[in-house]
DNA sequence: TACCTATAGTTGAGACCTCAACCAGAGCGT
DNA sequence: ACGCTCTGGTTGAGGTCTCAACTATAGGTA
């Protein structure tokens, strides 16, 4: 399921450096955007983006599943999110005529107003901390890199989100033997196996 | 506090395209890594990285605040995380001699074992979905881009995390008038003001 | 019609994160 | 010693996310 564990190709020093720069940049960037948006609009980015997708759709409304696809969200998460947004008065849900199990979410006027109010601050931060610190050339590069990563991931993620609705699994197990242990880095050791036992309550 | 809202520079179509590619790629990538690590080790990436930092430190131990800095985590979050990891038996906490209010976290043998077990699968996914889909040139570009973003963000994020400990605020208010409303996109309208009223319980 | 499966969406439990408040020791000035 | 402030770290409440189970309708097949 995870591919053969024997002889893992660890990251080189250069790769490690790039990897950590990337992770830290993304972490800081997202944290900053989220803080800013919460402060200004009392809403996390994930919710903001839901409103954005609705605002861009005809009639400012979308089927839940279409919205989930656009927002790259599991149906479960979207359901919780829309419930919260509905309670806040920013969206409303109603049934569809065609398919009686589906429901459509619609952006309310209050929701649109909040979006209008939040957008300038949000865009300003995005520009200031992403586009303004990159050259035009780097911006193009970032687009290409993002595209490549996403293309490789899309099928896997689509499947994972789809599994939200079904219950399908093929059992598979494998283990690989490792060598000796040393200092220990993010990616620098062989390994015996992989056994869960979640880090959780009780 | 948010800079002048008057005349916001919205994203161009090209910028919008890059922006969404980037966000989706990052979202999918992180989601994939997190799912994989949870499945294999019962632990979210954030926890995994804490163990990594500990494993790389002399004595496999660190002061909480040093660990927080390395992991780019608020002290609060780290405290909760280490509490969970301690309950799982992966780290242990004890007081320091020098400063009796500080405490140091140390990776246990069980923690190191879990790390060893988790590392191969994790690295394999990072390689497969990041480095393998990029050219060497793109990898370098990604490093440079990440560095630029992080440099611009570091002071702000450092300050934000520091504020976890204090309570400091300067009040400031501003509002800007906007124009007419249209279709509404992620970044395409003027705006009246920004008023919180969180999307939350009650 | 009855059954069987797939799809649309919701729900509850529990884990993780954020925010604000809090305790305790350190450091300094008096 | 006393008081004041700053720093290291924890705690509790509440919000969001994940996972797994669940309801209900749709669609196909006998």
Question: Would you mind describing this structure in some detail?
Answer:
The structure is a homodimer of 202-residue chains. Chain A has a 3-stranded antiparallel beta sheet. About 15% of the residues of chain A have low confidence. Helix content of chain A is 53%, strand content 6%. Chain A has a domain of 117 residues: Orthogonal Bundle (Arc Repressor Mutant, subunit A), CATH 1.10.10.10. The longest helix of chain A is centred in the first third of the chain and has 29 residues. The first copy, chain A, is globular, with a radius of gyration of 22 Å. In chain A, β2 and β3 form a beta hairpin. Chain A is mainly α and 202 residues long. The first copy, chain A, binds a DNA duplex (30 and 30 nucleotides) through α1, α3 and α4.
List its traits:
DNA-binding; 3-stranded antiparallel beta sheet; Arc Repressor Mutant, subunit A; mainly alpha; 3 strands; homodimer
Largest sheet of chain A: 3 strands, antiparallel
Percent of residues in helices of chain A: 40-55%
pLDDT averaged over residues of chain A: 83
Largest interface, with counts of residues having CB < 8 Å to the other chain, equals:
A-B, 105 and 106 residues
CATH class of the domain at 13-129 in chain A: Mainly Alpha
Find the CATH superfamily of the domain at 13-129 in chain A. Winged helix-like DNA-binding domain superfamily/Winged helix DNA-binding domain
- What amount of the residues of chain A lies in strands? 5-15%
- Quick one: overall form of chain A? globular
Counting copies of identical and different chains, the oligomeric state is homodimer
Distance between the termini of chain A: 28 Å
Radius of gyration of chain A: 22 Å
Please count the beta strands of chain A (DSSP E, at least 2 residues each): 3
Residue stretches of chain A low in confidence (pLDDT < 50, at least 5 long) are 167-196
Q: Helix count of chain A?
A: 6
- State the CATH topology of the domain at 13-129 in chain A: Arc Repressor Mutant, subunit A
Q: Structural class per helix/strand content of chain A?
A: mainly alpha
**From the 3D coordinates, which CATH architecture of the domain at 13-129 in chain A would you assign?**
Orthogonal Bundle
């Amino acid at each position: 399921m995870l591919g053969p564990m024997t002889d893992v190709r660890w990251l080189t020093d250069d790769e490690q450096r790039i990897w950590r720069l990337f992770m830290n940049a993304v972490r800081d960037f997202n944290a900053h955007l989220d803080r800013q948006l919460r402060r200004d609009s009392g809403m996390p980015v994930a919710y903001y983006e839901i409103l954005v997708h609705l605002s861009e759709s005809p009639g400012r409304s979308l089927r839940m599943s279409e919205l989930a696809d656009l927002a790259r969200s599991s149906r479960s998460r979207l359901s919780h999110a829309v419930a919260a947004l509905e309670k806040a008065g920013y969206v409303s849900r109603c049934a569809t005529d065609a398919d009686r199990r589906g429901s459509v979410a619609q952006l309310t006027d209050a929701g649109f107003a909040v979006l209008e109010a939040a957008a300038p601050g949000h865009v300003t931060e995005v520009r200031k901390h992403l586009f303004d610190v990159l050259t035009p050339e780097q911006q193009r590069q970032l687009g290409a890199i993002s595209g490549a990563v996403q293309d490789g991931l899309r099928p896997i993620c689509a499947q994972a989100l789809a599994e939200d609705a079904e219950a399908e699994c093929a059992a598979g197990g494998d283990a690989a033997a490792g060598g000796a242990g040393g200092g220990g880095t993010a990616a620098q050791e062989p390994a015996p196996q992989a056994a869960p036992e979640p880090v959780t309550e009780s």
